[in-house]
Design a protein that fits this description.
The chain is an all-beta fold. Helices cover about 0% and strands about 40% of the residues. Strands 8, 9, 11, 13, 14, 16 and 18 form a seven-stranded antiparallel β-sheet that branches. It has a three-stranded antiparallel β-sheet with strand order 4-5-7, with no helix packed on it.
């Protein structure tokens, strides 16, 4: 049985629904695994550990949305030595008391689409912030909002900064708020279907200590959810 997601100009088959699969899936692509970047760093595939795919119920029609195509299985190359810097790191939020869950779940390593694995923040523009606890070179973000059903989260913005108040050296890495309704600037990135693959964002080696992820509700309701956020990179040597 397959569910379907809708994008501008057509439909694509989403991942098959699998029941009772207990093990996480590792994204792996055969072929060459080593390369070199322009600055001579050895490049390797990002070792993404995927949760099991699980769409429950009938996906709602997502008409009129210009959605990014689902990610393929091509490897995403990062410098050798990259780790998930966010794992078990402190999390703060614009909503300090989530309706569901605890903020620490955003970086606890649990990406499954089941009750107890995600947090729910209130309506409107909300953010979850991760303190990496030291400056780092960041090469990739992976974000899972809520992949139990087909949803598109609105005004997804990812920013980094050198300070917890996001005043010093703030940079936007991803922004799909096309009309600036969240007040963080006009974004040119596409909206996307939240699914078990997670949203992979190329951070291009940006250096920062703090990461902030914004959203403004979704196509199913006006709440904001986070299952897991991964930040892949390398700590900056002192």
């Amino acid at each position: 049985m397959k569910t379907k997601g809708v994008m501008s100009g057509g439909v694509w088959p989403a991942a098959p629904v699998r029941w009772g699969v207990a093990l996480a899936v590792t994204l792996f692509v055969a072929g060459p695994t080593l390369a070199a970047s322009e600055d001579g760093k050895k490049m390797v595939p990002l070792p993404i550990q995927l949760p099991k795919p699980l769409f429950e119920g009938t996906p709602k029609a997502l008409k009129g949305l210009n959605l990014a195509k689902p990610r393929g299985n091509e490897p995403f190359m990062v410098p050798d030595g990259c780790v998930n810097l966010a794992l078990k790191k402190p999390v703060t939020s614009s909503d300090p008391e989530p309706t569901v869950g605890e903020l620490k779940q955003v970086t606890d390593g649990d990406k499954d689409a089941v009750e107890g694995s995600y947090i729910e923040l209130g309506p409107g523009v909300q953010w979850a912030q991760i303190d990496l606890q030291q400056p780092c070179e960041i090469y990739a973000f992976l974000i899972w909002h809520f992949h139990k059903e087909a949803r598109v989260y609105r005004d997804v913005v990812v920013q980094v900064a050198d300070d917890a108040d996001f005043i010093t050296n703030v940079r936007t890495v991803f922004n799909n708020d096309a009309d600036n309704s969240s007040g963080l600037g006009v974004g040119t990135d596409l909206e996307y279907l939240d699914e078990y693959l997670g949203k992979l964002i190329d951070a291009k080696g940006v250096k920062a200590r703090y990461v902030r992820c914004y959203s403004k509700g979704n196509t199913s309701n006006d709440q904001n959810h986070y299952t897991e956020v991964e930040v892949w990179g390398i700590p900056v040597k002192k």
